[in-house]
Predict the 3D structure of the following.
Amino acid sequence: MEKIVVKGGSKLSGKIKISAAKNSVLPIIAGSILSGGRCVIENAPMLEDVFVISDVLKSVSAETVIDKENSRILIDTSNISYGEPSSELVRKMRASFLIMGPMIARFGRFKISLPGGCNIGTRPIDLHLKGLTALGAEVSIGHGYVEAVANRLIGNKVYLDFPSVGATENIMMAAVFADGETIIENSAEEPEIEDLAKFLNNMGAIIEGAGTDTIKITGVKSLRGTVHKPICDRIEAGTFMVAGAITRSKVEVVGVNEEHLKPIIAKLTEMGVSLELGEDSIIVDGTKILKPVDIKTMPYPGFPTDMQAQMMSLLCTVKGTSVITETIFENRFMHAQELKRMGANIKIDGRSAVVEGVDMLTGSEVKATDLRAGAALILAGLASEGETVISDIYHIDRGYVDIENKFKGLGADIKRIEA
Ligand code: EPU
């Protein structure tokens, strides 16, 4: 089992290049099922989750090649057949459920293992299924599986009770071949949804409004393969911006889209972090005295839940009281317990965490409880006195490319060890 060891206290400097967004690439790989041809994903992040979804596609007989050297993924779904994906893979990664929409669109039926909950919440799939039902699919659940059957999907209006990212993506993909028009109301507005729509439209789909709260999909008969370069990872960018702030250093985060980072930029600015915005880069200067802030996670364009843990680490080092409210997932404060091992002063009250800044965090043995929690512990380790040893780092590898080397490049004292 591998661990990451961080020695705190080093100032960071230099430039860091951001990789492509994991949460764009996963639905895009699922969406390639609709092409019935060859797709190439360029500049793809070489991550565990990306390998898992590629294996899910293989398990329904798509051909996928991960070209690590050129950061490309080649997918051929022309010979894909109706089949059940490996339940082991579906349970390993919830995003595997994103093949539901494309598979039912192509084959008129699909059966897949129920994805189940995870460390951050129960994460039901009711909204995904509500959408498929509205398009005319008969959905049944039993023996740990969900099956959807529809001879022909028919376009319809779907109102989402909550703007779920995954449900929006699944319904959007299911509707690509549906008869007539589908309108998704109260859809999620995340940039990754816009990126998925761009990919599908390049293949011949007709999707309008992705990135807003109303998406219109006009059904087409077939799609073709395409080449796509996904957007950059706004959460990886945010994580490195926080790295500059938590080490009270100056770093440049390169390859970013300022528009997608607005809520993070706004919070860091409110705290007193100086941000110099370039064309596709941001210089983060955390050398001034920082102020506590309150944060409430919200669907995009609100503050992202995927940056909540990293901000908690930062606020632990800022004098004064900050309140963080998590409204997206019901159990996404597990990192607080680990940060407390490092001397943080955090009180959890339901969906809120009251963070009282301390003079110094202390290095400790901690556990990554999920992907972003793991990143938050690295950040806390960078700002701590002594050594922090993080276990269960497989969570971190699911979503951050080569994280220790990226931090090393900025001058951090960090290494991966075999424990
Ligand atoms: N929800 C329902 N019913 C549903 C679907 C969702 O109640 O049918 C609830 C969930 O339980 C949750 C909330 O809605 O409380 C938001 O879930 P959403 O469906 O929006 O999330 P997701 O699609 O499962 C994606 C990202 C997550 C990110 C969330 C929120 C991917 C592959 N995953 O998950 O990313 O936190 O949106 O922005 O895109 C991460 O990268 O660390 C990560 C967890």
In short: The pocket of EPU is lined by residues 23, 26, 94-95, 121, 123-128, 162, 164-167, 188, 305-306, 328-329, 371-372, 399 (CB under 6 Å).
